[in-house]
Structures are given as structure tokens and as C-alpha cells.
Amino acid sequence: MKSIKQLAAAVLLSSSLGAGVLADWPQWRGPDRTDISKETGLLKQWPAGGPKLDWIYKDGGLGYAGFAVVGETLYTMGARGDTEMLIALNVKDGSQKWAVPIGALLTNGWGDGPRGTPTVDGEHIYTLSGQGNLICAKASDGTTVWKASMRDLGGKTPGWGYTESPLVDGDKVVCTPGGAKGAVAAFDKKTGKVLWQSADFTEGAQYSSIIAVDHDGKRQFIQRTMAKVVGLDPSSGAVLWVTDFPGKTAVIPTPIYHSGNVYVAAGYGVGCKMVNIGSGNKVTEVYQNDVIINHHGGVVLVGEHLYGYSDKAGWVCQDFKSGKQVWAEKKALGKGAITFADGKLYLLGESDGQVVIIDASPEGWKEHGRFTLTPQTKNRNPKGKVWTHPVIANGKMYLRDQELIFSFDVKGK
């Protein structure tokens, strides 16, 4: 069985023979959960009105679930009626390949339905419903292989539902039920057997997704909760290190690891923090400030600079090593989500659906095109916004507004 990284490498190798490199996007924030696409040969400047629209799928269901794209299939989730569904679409024309139920509808004042992103690993796909049903299914037709409930592991559904995207690493599937039995749990990815729960780390689940990193020659899982950021031993769930980072209301953005440093950000006025994991997993704070106060639109690290929306200053470039602000732009685009591909940042405004492409550069905001997502849903909860993150995969840009799923051609000519 090929791993996520092996599959991505194979696609890169086979696709690099032409003009540019195309790449799959098999899980939340891409193959290594950094939101950095390996694609090249994409449009450097958009035409007036934006890139060419390939298709719109209009039955994606309610929710904010993201996209996994592997080969000719896009995977996502959505709620139809009182049921949440795992859905597979043909990327060529947007037609549905299959859709299967994964659990009862999560209801919420900011919008019903699932929030996470499926993870594709070889012949199987793993996903977590809004109410905490972990599903392993066949990627070919959606047939359930096994399932588990976060509730059975002592978990309690967070206020906005389970939003985590399951991590597949080696022979394990890892996610965060939260609770006194252990905040993080690992399953055998083939059978669904519980391998361990983190007995020494027992906080409630929040909304972030786990990353797997190689640090100092050893693998570890990094996750965060309302008050802590933690590194766990993949073989046992034992705590390797922990640092305080108290959040407020909700903790959402995925951690970033680079060169022995772990960076986290949070909204609701909290800000950001970076720690260094030294020898023996000794934790040292590098900085903590409010340069990036990121709610849930995400932060990306490109080179030695971080980019993302800050509730304080707007779109921000932050120096990774020092934590200092390099530039900020508040007027050009409102709050939203971000991803990176081929030297550019793709930005999606959550309030109006504006989509903007700019240089990923510490030199400042340099725009290369924009358009407004059209049409937009009439089914969004009044408190909800365009919250699904953009994805770049195999020369396409995928966007979503509830039941409406869009594919745009962003490959250079």
C-alpha cells in the first residue's frame, strides 16, 4: 500500500514530463499539511473576470468540508437532509461518482453539516463527521471498511462540531476525540482497532488537525488544544513535550513545524507563538505576540516568511525567525483563507467571496488578478460565511460555498 507521500511523489514524477508539475492534494493542507502545493506552470496573471470556470457541482450539501483531490477524483463531505455524506466527484466534469452516508447531521448556529477534510491513503479514504464518526471507506466506491465513534473514546462534540481532518501516518490513523481517556487516539488504519490514547494528555478536543514531523531523527505528532501545544510519541501516545498557549473561545489553525520550531496561531485576540524543540525535547519560547491573530483562515510558511490574515492588521507577512511584522494590507481584501502554489498566494474573502492571487513575497502586496465567486449559495446560515479553504490541485483551483463546488482552470498555457 502506497503512503500519501509516495502517491504524491509518483504524481509529481509522472506529471513533470510536460510543461510544469501537477500534484495531487490528498488531505487537509496538502501532502505534508503545510498548505504548500508543489505545482508549477500555473497562471501568473489572471484574465479579467478571473480564470476559466470548468464546472459547478450544485449538490455538495450543506457544510464547510474541504477537498482531497487524487487523480481524477475529488473527495469531500456535505449534508443532505438529516444525513452527512462522503462524496466523490469526477474532476473532469464535476459529475458525482458516488455518495455514502457517514452519520447524522451536525446542527449549529453558524451552519449545519460537516467541517473537516477527507484523507486519501492508497485504496482507502478516512474522514470524520461533524458529530465525531470516524469512517474508513474504499476510495473506489465509498463502501465502509470500518468505523469508530469519538464518543466511545470519551470524546464530547465541541461546540462547533468535530472539524478535524484525520491524519494517516504509516499504519495509523490519528485524531482527537478529547477527554479524560486521552485527548488523542491512534487506530490501526486497516482494522480500526484502537492502538492507544494519550493518557497523559487529556484535554477536550478543539478544532485543529494533527501534523506528523521528523524531529531530531524521530517521528512525532503535534497537536493543540485550548490551553496546550503538545508533541506525542507515535508508538504510544506518550507526551514528549508540552507548552502553554491558552486560547479563547476556539483554537483552530493547524500548527506549523520548521527546522525544530513549532508555530501556532489563534483568533479571538490571542495571537501567535513559536517555540524551539531542543535536544531531549526541551521547549524554549522564541516569541509570542499579536502580529498574526488568525481565526481559521490558516497561515502558510513560504521560505522564511509566514502569511495569513490577522484580525488586528489584515493580511500580514511575518518573519518566521523573529516574529516581527514585515508588511500588512487591510484594505485590499477582507478576512479570509489562504493557500500557496507556484510562487503565489491564493486568497478567498469570507464575507463577499472575492478571490485574489498575489505574490508570496516579503516585498509587499502585489496583486495579479481577482474575481468574485458567482453564483453564491442561498442556503448559507445568516451567521455563516464562505469558510471552505481554497485548494490547488492538478492545475485546477477548487472553491466551495455550501452546496456549490467550483472548479477553475489555473494551469498556464
UniProtKB/TrEMBL annotation:
Domain of life: Bacteria
All copies of domain Pyrrolo-quinoline quinone repeat, residue ranges: 86-328
Signal peptide, first to last residue: 1-23
Stored InterPro entries: PQQ_b-propeller_rpt, PQQ_rpt_dom, Quinoprotein_ADH-like_sf, WD40/YVTN_repeat-like_dom_sf
UniProtKB keywords: Signal
Protein name: PQQ-like beta-propeller repeat protein
Organism: Humisphaera borealis
